[in-house]
Amino acid sequence: MYRSHTCGELRAENIGATVTVAGWVQTIRDKGNILWVDLRDRYGIVQIVGETGVVSDEVMEQLKGMGREFVIQVEGEVIERYQKNPEMETGDIEIKATAVTLLNASITPPFTIEDETDGGEEIRMKYRYLDLRRNPVQEKLKLRHKVSLETRKYLDTVDFMEVETPYLIKSTPEGARDFVVPSRMNPGQFYALPQSPQTFKQLLMVSGYDRYYQIVKCFRDEDLRADRQPEFTQIDCEMAFVEQEDVLNTFEGLIKHLFKTCRNHEFDGDFPRMTYAEAMERYGSDKPDIRFGMEFVNLNSVAQGKGFGVFDNAELVVAINAKGCANYSRKQLDALVNWVKRPQIGALGMIYCKCNEDGTFKSSVDKFFDQDALAEWATAAGAEKGDLILVLSGETNKVRSQMNELRLHMGTELGLRDPNAFAPLWVLDFPLLEWDEESERYHAMHHPFTSPKKEDFDLIDTEPGKVRANAYDLAMNGVELGGGSIRIHNKELQARMFELLGFSDEEAKAQFGFLMNAFEYGAPPHGGLAFGFDRLVATMGGSDSIRDYIAFPKNNSGRDVMIDSPAPLGTEQYEELYLESTAKEETAE
Amino acid sequence: MYRSHTCGELRAENIGATVTVAGWVQTIRDKGNILWVDLRDRYGIVQIVGETGVVSDEVMEQLKGMGREFVIQVEGEVIERYQKNPEMETGDIEIKATAVTLLNASITPPFTIEDETDGGEEIRMKYRYLDLRRNPVQEKLKLRHKVSLETRKYLDTVDFMEVETPYLIKSTPEGARDFVVPSRMNPGQFYALPQSPQTFKQLLMVSGYDRYYQIVKCFRDEDLRADRQPEFTQIDCEMAFVEQEDVLNTFEGLIKHLFKTCRNHEFDGDFPRMTYAEAMERYGSDKPDIRFGMEFVNLNSVAQGKGFGVFDNAELVVAINAKGCANYSRKQLDALVNWVKRPQIGALGMIYCKCNEDGTFKSSVDKFFDQDALAEWATAAGAEKGDLILVLSGETNKVRSQMNELRLHMGTELGLRDPNAFAPLWVLDFPLLEWDEESERYHAMHHPFTSPKKEDFDLIDTEPGKVRANAYDLAMNGVELGGGSIRIHNKELQARMFELLGFSDEEAKAQFGFLMNAFEYGAPPHGGLAFGFDRLVATMGGSDSIRDYIAFPKNNSGRDVMIDSPAPLGTEQYEELYLESTAKEETAE
Q: Which of A47, A68, A66, A42 is nearest to A134 (CA)?
């Protein structure tokens, strides 16, 4: 061992002890006759002191030769600090150096290794191993470690078994795009990396494993959006002999356990629940952020029929009430209008109505709506003097989605989205199917094994689009933490489902043959859920960005700029794999 | 919930209770007026009883309609059994059925779901989801789950952090073959799947994570031998500021913890240690099975110079003493000779010497060795009346390897390899380099970052082949459970090492550039170890076969016969990936 103690553990009770510590030089303050070195490791920072005449000349000289991020070993005596630092856990003491060994020097890092660094995103990605030294990054990965360990401990106590499922599986043409892996031993054939262990976990239920989980990497070859990663981690779970209520209770228990053990946060009572239909109506989102109100208000009855064509021709006129924002300037309002008109939001415009302190109203459509008409808006929206009503209109689904974005934006602007507040919400009764305009047929909203609600069975033949599924999501703070469903375990129902989705028997067999075969041999009722682990940890950490919670993330082009991957392949490798490239990129040697 | 209790938990104290259980029909014994159903789930088996006149006619009829592997739900009253079964945990009770619900029927499985099944290897692989129902298979996966959970718990208590490293990394032409993954977003470029997280864990040490671990899938595209899998699991660990002794102690602690918690097995004292050189001399193996003796005996001094050319021309004449085997028949001895002559072993022949009960000796080379000469063999080998001496000769490395196989074979034959005995052994001081005849240069025995022993530094320039490394393996029962090394953290030494291995500066940079760059910024002394998790669990389970301990294994051609993977790719997928196939296999579609 290179040390008797870590840099984080020495306290007043160690005063007088001879210790050895090792770590990285964080800072040196050299006052000539006396100098201090802050020495850092994963566990904390300890102050080393050297003073001419007190420590040997050799030690003094060595200490003076150290630079930022040098790795050193220091032997010395723990002494009481003259000036204590209550901000530091080791702030009562310092180490009077008696011997110093340089373990490794460092060239100057390209950015400072401090909580607030001077390095930009790009340079920190390239030198991720240095960024990982920074305290805020280490804290994020420590949280991740703790959440993963506590997940396992909890699930173990309620009889879940972790079972590893394979990574080299089979590509299915439907759904999102797979990453594929050419098989050298089977020329012309490919494995695929799993998008999720869905079929394997259902097989494990057929196999009688009863309660399965896995914290597992999944892969999706999608065009990356900001904060999407081609590889991501899931807490994947499945249970047999359960109904929806059992699944919800089990995983509500897990989430409560994680927040208690990892964030010291206790939730009051049960998580609230809301149907998908209600969530869409009140928030325009299937993962509403309920840390704040600002709920949707339907203005159809008070805003239509007054001659304003935009509203009159709209399927939905919907408002939110921005409390206390009547004093927004023209510039601020214009900025909001431009914000909703950006292509990412896609609104054609936005109407506002200020509820002035003097009791009058001022709207952008005064031509069509007199003071009485606007007063009706205010009553409907629960707006009081000083409030600002924001209105969007159009096709219901589109306008809801736009208003959801606007609501979240206003929530952020007004500081209503406290990163240290946590508002879970079960969203239930998702539709079983969604109509796809392009292919002119129904798609499964979750996947083809999701079961419809019993009470909607008779709608399957008449109005399939109205059938609700035993499918559920856990939302928190406007983010989807996870979701799942009770699966179909009845062969006839499964066949009807494939038919609804436009699968021929052959197609169904080609894609899901082994699972359908397995279902012939006694499949128990089962259901499950998967949490996005990166997203869960980020949310627990109070952050929107998952990338910060991944040790070695990829950028938005799917590249790891640190190791410079992906990279061209050698000619020999192409040959071994029976492949040729049609890309212009040259091969490596 | 479909049940109030699992099938494994009812006991005498539940007598009188009304319960609901659900599971699979294991067996039905129908005696006409009375019948018993054994109902099975992951937790155990419970007996259901139906009797005409005692249960309703409807229930009786339902029970009679059940078949093997049907999934049913049974409500009933827990009653005391007339004939108790002390072999079963639920053997004191049975459930008098009051209601039966068929949850799912089953067609007849292709093999029996029993501890001893009638299904062959191939059919069980194809229907792996049914094989997974069998008790012995479930027990293996339960052990795997427990070992993985206890590994994490233990490493957490000694400050290790689990950090996930990426799966989509970069291919390096050296070493074993990588599986590669074409990148659609980066035409002509490929990711590689990791053979191990080696470089990433070293980066984490540079980043100050101090103690890292991960239970992680690794991938190697090798021509598969029996019991090798293209994807396998490692417990991967690394520590900073440590010397070899620290690493050994830490992981000896882990292994002791695992055996204690998962096998209720305690080891006496410290694990024995042996140098690589000694292990090769005494057992001809770097992972000797020390559950039994039968150590190598060097016969050079007593067997050479007697005119027997085979011995006289041999670099090494080596014997083992098979206790009590002097009564081996001609046929048995011939079988042994044929066994060592198989291409897998490759010996040219085998000499034996029986130590007869009457004090005489009988060897296959009586022409060259008289009774006195053979008595010398016996003395050297510690052989007594009734023992059998087996002798191989030839080039030292080859003959050691052959004799190792013979020794293990004899150990198995003589029942000396108790699967419930566990004999750990640290093998230390591995050579740093091994000479490769083909490329006529040294290769790193572990990898180029393994550090040489300080006391052998001066041999680096003169006799590099004799330099020992700070490298170690943990062997158990003839199996390598894991291995690792203290890494080089000194730039000059690293450069010298690359030179020894015949790397140019450019080559070293191209392959290990980002790690070498990282080493410029203050790398701490570090070292680590990785355990083969599949192998560890199999050994703990007393088995030689890792495949049994993997939920969904691949066969020896790297195929998953259950899901029929790998499989041809569609034309569209080839196009998206900028690839063309040169294999004869047609594309899908």
A: A42
Residue-number span of the structural domain to which A514 is assigned:
139-263+445-549
Whether B353 shows a pLDDT value over 90: the answer reads: yes
Tell me if A61 is assigned to some domain: yes
Q: Nearest CA to A526 among A246, A159, A222, A122?
A: A246
Whether A306 maps to a domain, the answer reads yes
The dihedrals phi and psi of B252, each to the nearest 5 degrees, come to -65, -40
Asked whether residue A299 falls in the same domain as residue A362, the answer is: yes
Query: In the predicted model, what is the mean pLDDT of residues B83-100?
Result: 96
Best of A6, A489, A521 to disrupt the B interface (most B CBs within 10 Å) is A521
Chain-centre distance for alpha carbon B567: 28
Report the C-alpha gap between A113 and A288 in whole angstroms. Answer: 37
**Of A191, A204, A451, A517, which to mutate for an interface test with B (greatest number of B Cβ within 10 Å)?**
A191
* A9: contact with B, CB 8 A cutoff: no
Sign, CA dihedral B286-B291-B294-B298, equals positive
- Tell me what the mean pLDDT of segment B150-179 comes to: 92
Structure tokens at B539: 């050994």
**Listed residue (A95, A35, A43, A87) closest to A66, CA to CA:** A35
- Nearest to B355, CA basis, from B322, B392, B388, B319: B388
Whether residue A450 sits in one domain with residue A413: no
Distances (CA, A) of B467 to A53, B356, B438, B458, B508: 45, 46, 21, 9, 21
| Interface with chain A: mutation pick from B218, B521, B549, B580, highest number of A CBs within 10 Å | B521
For residue B569, is it within any domain? no
The answer to the question of residue A429 being in a domain is no
Number of domains in chain A: 3
A2, A41, A179 member nearest B181 (Cβ): A179
- Residues forming a β-bridge with A484: A472, A529
Kindly report the nearest CA distance between residue A555 and chain B, in angstroms.
12
Radius of gyration of chain B (CA): 30
Q: Which two tokens stand for residue A370?
A: 């007199």
pTM over 0.90: yes
Contacts of B106 in chain A (CB under 8 A): 520-522
> What residue has token string 């949850």?
B103
Per the CB < 8 A criterion, the answer to whether B567 and A170 are in contact is yes
CA A362 to CA A328: how far, in whole Å?
12
**CA distances, A14 to each of A11, A41, A92, A98, B309 (Å):** 6, 18, 10, 16, 72
Coil/strand/helix, residue A122 = helix
Give the number of C-alpha atoms closer than 13 A to the C-alpha of residue B572, restricted to the C-beta side: 7
Provide CB contacts within 8 A for A413, sequence distance 6+. Answer: none
Does the complex come out with an ipTM higher than 0.90? yes
Peptide bond into B194 cis (omega under 30): no
Residue at A143: amino acid letter:
L
Cβ <8 Å between B186 and A557: yes
Specify whether the CB–CB gap between B238 and B250 falls below 8 A.
Answer: no
Locate all alpha helices (DSSP H) within A184-329, ordered by sequence.
198-206, 244-263, 276-283, 300-303, 309-312
Q: What are the tokens at A314?
A: 């709209």
Distance separating alpha carbons of residues A292 and A295, to the nearest angstrom: 9
CA–CA dist B484, B530 (Å, integer)? 6
Could you give the count of Cα atoms lying within 13 Å of A559 in the half-sphere of its Cβ?
A: 15
pLDDT tens by residue, A317-334 = 999 999 999 999 999 999
Same domain, A412 and A513: no
Distance of alpha carbon A65 from alpha carbon A102, whole angstroms: 10
Same domain, B396 and B469: no
* DSSP strands (E only) in B303-416: 316-322, 351-355, 361-363, 388-394
pLDDT at residue A586 greater than cutoff 60: no
Residue of chain A with shortest Cα separation from B70: A522
Last residue of a domain, one of A53, A77, A104: A104
